[in-house]
Amino acid sequence: MTATISRRLPGLAHLQRLTDDTGITEHALGKIPRRKEGYSTDDQARALWASLELLELSGEQDRPLLLTLIDTYLAFMLWVQKEDGHYHNNIAYDRSKEPEVPSEDCLGRCLWASALAYCRLEDPGRRLAAETLLAHSLPLVSTLRTPRGWAHALAALGLLKRHGYHDGRIHGGAAAYAFSAELADSAIQELTRRLKQSYRSHAAADWQWYEAEMTYSNGLLPWGMLWAYESTGDREALDIALSSLDFLILRSRSPKEHHIRPIGNRGWCSRHSRALWDQQPIDVMKLMLACTKAGELTGEIRYRETARACHAWFYGDNDAGVPLADHEEGSCCDGLQECGVNLNRGAESTISYLLAEVMYEGHLANEKQP
After folding, report:
1. Is the previous residue joined to 234 through a cis bond, with omega within 30 degrees of 0?
2. Which residues of 257-293 are buried (b: 16+ CB within 10 A; e: fewer)?
3. How far apart are CA 2 and CA 4, in angstroms?
4. What is the DSSP track for 256-316?
5. Domain of life of the organism in this record (predicted)?
6. What is the Cα gyration radius of the chain?
């Protein structure tokens, strides 16, 4: 890639500031890391994802730093992965593991990030780490019981299928997993069936969604269904993906100004009510993720237009009319509240912004607008 593209990408100062020799810290006070809040494996997987995407678009000057960050996040994930393939999510700053129940969301995020690392990393030493993570966690795909877990797994398996895996065994240290095309396709079919059934169980003329409520990271669900369509060619999966995405877009736009208005986390959205606050960057990024994927698969301009609106939300085209992102440092405020922006710039919001920038630069920046 050219240096011009590299200069358009946001800076890496805040990602570097949040990351120490253990991993990326979960929270910040303003732009300063709050070390007493510790770490989450969720954020390591997100940071690995963002760093891998940035590595694809950045110039040579940022490559050493990004590879160092990738090494840190991979090392964290290797450390907290259990023998059964699950991940311990919540880690105190002293590196002690806090009590918790295993999270399918965490497993799903790690599946996606490790699959991306497996497909993107060329260095055998780093790729071995991704192989190890996958060898332990892929057997758990059949045990997933939640729509977000299914969506993450569909994306991970779809990516591996697109990458052109061959029949054999994924090896990682002492672990190995028989990862054949037949087994992968069977898993994709089953996960697609489950996500379709979840949609059918809840959808109605006035509610085209997979659950009784629209809660967090909603764009993840149509994104997973779009991966299902790409992997299988199942037209029903595509119809459900686009119907649910259109429904999400309708509920994520201001009815008058038409800017992005993600569903607030203080009450979420049901058939009867919708929360306005707080608005979270991750929800905007996940909507942009689904719209970018839909635009790729369908070529429909309206999805790219919504993705552009998601990008603009970070820079002030939102209900508060104020920017959340600092492009020079690559940081992002934690969300919008009725009193304005939450000035803390933690891992989740910062990574969400960086991924939004990657999608914009990779898919939208050079397109002519109608």
Report:
1. no
2. eebbbbbbbeebbeeeeebeeebbbbbbbbbbbbbbb
3. 5
4. TT--B-PPPTTT-B-SS-B----B-HHHHHHHHHHHHHHHHHH--HHHHHHHHHHHHHTTT
5. Bacteria
6. 19
Q: Which of 293, 294, 259 is nearest to 279 (CA)?
A: 259
Amino acid at 191: L
Distances (CA, A) of 193 to 138, 186, 198: 18, 11, 9
Select from 111, 201, 178 the least CA-distant residue to 150: 111
How many angstroms separate the CA atoms of 180 and 256, rounded?
51
Query: Tokens at residue 106, please?
Result: 């965490």
Give CA torsion, residues 111, 265, 286, 101, to 10 deg: 0
Pairing relationship of beta strands 32-33 and 28-29 according to DSSP bridges: antiparallel
Tens digits of residue pLDDT in 31-40: 999 999 999 9
Whether 231 and 154 have beta carbons less than 8 Å apart is answered as yes
Q: How far is residue 291's CA from residue 156's CA, in Å, rounded to a whole number?
A: 18
Q: Which residues are bridge partners to 253 per DSSP?
A: 260
Q: Where are the domains of the chain?
A: 3-364
- Cα distance between residue 303 and residue 359, in whole Å: 13
Per-residue pLDDT tens for 42-90? 999 999 999 999 999 988 899 999 999 999 999 999 999 999 999 999 9
Model pTM score: 0.93
Q: Which amino acid is at 79?
A: W
Q: Look-up: residue for tokens 């199942």?
A: 234
The two three-digit tokens of residue 312, written as one number: 């603009």
Report the Cα–Cα distance between both ends of the chain, in Å, rounded.
26
Q: Tell me which CATH code domain 3-364 carries.
A: 1.50.10.10
